[in-house]
Structure prediction request, 540 residues.
Amino acid sequence: MRDRERDARQRQADEALRDYEISRRRVLEALGVSAGVTAISATGVGRALGAVGSSADGGSADLILHSGTIWTGVRGPSREAVAIKGQRIVAVGSDREVLAWADGSTRSIDLRGAFVAPGFRDQHAHILRTLSTNPATYQPRWTGHDEAASFESRRRTGQGHVNTYNAGRTPSDGAATHGPVTELLRSQILTLQEEAAKLGISTIVDAGLTNLTVMDALMQLHDEGRLKVRHLIRWQVGAMEAAAQLGWTTGFGNDWIKVLGVKMYADGWLGPRTCALREPYADDPYEWGFPNGILFLAQDRANRDVARAQELGYNITAHAIGDRGVETMLNAYDLAGVTQADRWALEHVQVAGDDLLDRMAAKGVVASIQLSFPTSDHWFAFDALGKRRAQRESYRWHTMLRRGLHVAGGTDFSIEVLDPLWGIQRSVTRREFDGSPSGGFLPEESVTVDDALQLITANDAFASYEEDDRGTIETGKYADLVVMRENLQTIPRMAIANATRLMTITNGKIVSEGEVAYPPGDATKDIPGAPSQQELADLY
Ligand SMILES: [Zn+2]
Prediction:
């Protein structure tokens, strides 16, 4: 029922409030402002200069990062230092203010000008479904574009969609599986999370799981104190009943593992010409016999599934790439009485006119977009949609932000690589790593570095009901941080993906330390539409 979801959300809000009160009290105590104590001791004059201070009775920080550029995600100038105690941030400010939190037991790290951002988040990945890939050999490299291979790969995907549709199913209908936790599963999770932690990622939303055993494995690893990345889970709609029977609905979990909700699947993809469009495709390279693409969820089925997921107490999202897919899901959400408070979402939203964006904004439906998709899809978007529709209605990340939508950012790993910096560079430049296409793909839809960072920090936290606790660097919030050598705001935009991660902190714990970079590589193939050497040089 709606009431159950509301109760769950209220419980969450209460917990957040309690945690906030605890941290507020701790800060006040540290300041000497708790009841009956004078605000500032005689010896605390130096400490009283800033808005923060430490005390002799254990108010010191466990970890201080200083002499850096702290991009807090909050309006205003960047700061120099941040102090952490336990799982939380206790001070953010100038070096002098924050270093007042140090004592003999504090580990102080001189950032030497390094750049600190809130720990990255990924609102749409398949890290736990990708367990079958060999994580030990995970080494992202961009090797350029091979149109012949891509064409065939899209055909295979499209054939899969056609077969699924003909069987009367959607790609999210897989039934739940649940068995004993194996050593293999545990070690695969540990290896993949190691990779994510190295990349600066604090929180990953797994966008569609049917394997309930993964939850058991995560809880085991959590009990053993071995988790390094926070996992938020969405169940595939086919597994939602089984998960609900175990009580694994929205809000279930702890600081490291949480059930976020369910995921449905409205239509196909643009590349294989299977996403559902209101107007027919402009071309027909695969001759599927679906001129408007494939709508897996007919309106009545969408209505039914949404109503049931709502009844079970789930937050809801749906894969919806084409405008007909988006429209069908919005109809179902409206019928269910969706409100801003629900924060239901749609994944991808690659083709959507103003009418649909306005409907999403009005009901607070989150657009969960992928930062790398515009550049990855520029090879076929104009052919599939026709130039006019592509220009007006596709990959509208900037327009979405401007029209007041809640926009959340992700990768869709393993469709794209897990490294968030690759997506930031692509969404800011609207260019592939070789600079193509010349002039950028729909360059008016590019976003700023600040916007891109917001998309994968604060905005993602909002989309997961965590904005009171995470997503920015502020006193009282959980310490989820990433340290990079380069300042993402000032390095050349075409070099963002080369930046080096130095440290990742999640829930106050250092989960990765040491230099990590995945430069996309030298992909200077001769590609039609690629810029001239001069144009490329101007981009840096
Ligand atoms: Zn996905």
